[in-house]
Task: inverse folding
């Protein structure tokens, strides 16, 4: 596992990524002015799940690590079901746009919960740990020791599923480099998404100071 860990989880700096990310995250540049140029950039996005039963028409069909859509309005899943779950993916990108490995966590705040935290390599040595850190009955932390490597679509990225069965409001999910496995509060290399959950999937709730423009969140 050691060979897969990020050597620099870095603190923030001026970001040199490809043009696709620049347009979606131009507002992040001041925030990242002190980032080490060699530190991989955390990017989290909502996967539209094109062609799947959970296809999400509210999400940009081209959403990816290179053009992240980070906001969604979503209807509740049926009681006890995950039919409207949201697919959250993420990756670390170096300054040439290559995907880089390392331990990381998805951390959920607000309404909703993390419904899936898949193991990165199946029967291999890497691990995934899903936990309820505040004891409220909702899983809020998904730690994964490495990115997915299974020889299937989605390899070299990190994956989680988010769900809500009836609690209206906003779910914020931060993804971060997490070598100490304790969540994102003490990490600076991070990226966030936002989901507004409601019965019909059309409500928008009050924004807090983490929301920059109603659709794109900061990274770092």
Result:
């Amino acid at each position: 596992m050691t060979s897969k860990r990020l050597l620099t989880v870095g603190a923030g700096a001026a970001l040199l990524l490809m043009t696709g990310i620049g347009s979606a995250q131009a507002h992040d540049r001041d925030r990242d002015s002190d980032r080490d140029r060699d530190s991989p950039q955390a990017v989290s996005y909502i996967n539209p799940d094109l062609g799947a039963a959970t296809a999400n028409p509210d999400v940009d069909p081209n959403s990816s690590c290179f053009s992240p859509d980070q906001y969604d309005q979503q209807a509740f899943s049926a009681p006890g079901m995950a039919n409207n779950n949201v697919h959250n993916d993420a990756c670390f990108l170096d300054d040439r746009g290559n995907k880089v490995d390392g331990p990381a966590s998805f951390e959920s705040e607000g309404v909703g919960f993390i419904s899936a935290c898949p193991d990165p390599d199946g029967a291999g040595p890497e691990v995934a740990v899903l936990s309820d850190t505040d004891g409220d009955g909702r899983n809020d932390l998904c730690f994964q020791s490495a990115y997915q490597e299974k020889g299937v679509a989605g390899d070299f990225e990190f994956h989680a599923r988010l769900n809500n069965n009836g609690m209206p409001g906003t779910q914020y999910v931060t993804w971060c480099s997490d070598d100490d496995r304790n969540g994102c509060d003490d990490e600076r290399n991070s990226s966030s998404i936002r989901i507004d959950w409601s019965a019909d999937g059309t409500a928008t709730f009050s924004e807090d100071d983490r929301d920059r423009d109603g659709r794109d969140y900061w990274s770092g």
Remarks:
- The mean pLDDT is 83.
- The chain has one domain: 2-198.
- Residues 104 and 177 are 4 Å apart (CA to CA).
- Residues 2-198 form a domain with the Immunoglobulin-like fold (CATH 2.60.40.10).
